[in-house]
Amino acid sequence: MTQIAFIGLGHMGLPMARNLLKAGFALKVFDLLPTAVSELVSEGAMAARDASDAVQGATVVVSMLPASRHVEGLYLGDSGLLAQIAPGSLVLECSTIAPDSARKVHAAAKARGIDLLDAPVSGGTAGAAAGTLTFMVGGQAEALEKARPILAAMGKNLFHAGPDGAGQVAKVCNNQLLAVQMIGTAEAMALGVASGLDPAVLAEIMRQSSGGNWTLEKYNPWPGVMENAPASKGYSGGFMAELMAKDLGLAQEAAQATASSTPMGALALQLYRLLLKQGNGKLDFSAVQKLFVE
Ligand code: NAD
């Protein structure tokens, strides 16, 4: 049986790992927070003492960490994981990180004879739980074929975006667009409600009209409009605003590197920074709604 090491069991990693368990893979899991590890152990996973212990005997490694520095810290250097993973193994790095950071990890993996893919995801915590994530993959097509059965247990759509780092480029573009849509939706909701409309009625009209978008379909930022959206649970769970600010920063770095004009992305980053400065970084990113209400 394929033994998988899964590292990083946060909002996304935990439900993704759970789907691998359900699909019958043997899992050894590690997170800096022991509670997440215990939860999966009670469902059949093995607990690892640390990341090194997790990869012992594994032929596949999946990681889902917050940002570039965590990923580089985990894999690179003399005591990094790439020095401990067996050559010929497959590494699926699913965090959203800088494309350059991903390329650095790719190069170090190649030097050790390890197949690595950058495979960031879209679909949020609901998609992670349902096993319907979209994977945007960067790296060799042969490695993607090897990874297909594992990714299929966690996601529905697999896209080969291109060579090393291309998955991260696609993800950064997607999240810039998502942030712009979320801010626009929050602004329109606040305008309508301030002008006397019922938020649920307005949300439904816009959802079915030309302003319709993903945030109106699945993730309305106005509390009470969608029962299961983070906005209706005090903006808890979901995708933290500080992670969205990180992704918008990555988009601005990409824009700088390519001399691209991204005024909407730049403004979105500024608005998320403001939200963070107000102490809301740990809330879901739909809490950007707070900038538009008293
Ligand atoms: P999170 O903060 O909830 O989870 C990250 C986990 O990594 C935490 O449990 C943390 O303890 C663990 N961790 C950090 N460093 C570690 C290390 N060295 N070893 C072991 N564990 C370590 O974040 P998340 O929401 O699960 O997001 C993870 C990644 O996925 C981010 O890059 C994010 O941008 C991306 N993402 C998130 C969503 C979402 O909706 N939450 C959607 C798509 C992509």
From TrEMBL:
Annotated ranges, domain 3-hydroxyisobutyrate dehydrogenase-like NAD-binding: 165-291
Active-site residues per Swiss-Prot or TrEMBL entry: K171
Keywords: Branched-chain amino acid catabolism, NAD, Oxidoreductase
Keyword Translocase: no
GO biological process, one term: L-valine catabolic process
Domain spans labelled 6-phosphogluconate dehydrogenase NADP-binding: 3-162
Pathway this chain belongs to: Amino-acid degradation; L-valine degradation
One family name in Pfam for this protein: NAD_binding_11
EC nos: 1.1.1.31
Cited InterPro entries: 3-OH-isobutyrate_DH-rel_CS, 6-PGluconate_DH-like_C_sf, 6PGD_dom2, 6PGDH_NADP-bd, HIBADH, HIBADH-like_NADP-bd, HIBADH-related, NAD(P)-bd_dom_sf
Reaction catalysis annotation: 3-hydroxy-2-methylpropanoate + NAD(+) = 2-methyl-3-oxopropanoate + NADH + H(+)
Organism superkingdom: Bacteria
GO MF annotation, one: NADP binding
Family indicated by similarity: Belongs to the HIBADH-related family.
Protein name as annotated: 3-hydroxyisobutyrate dehydrogenase
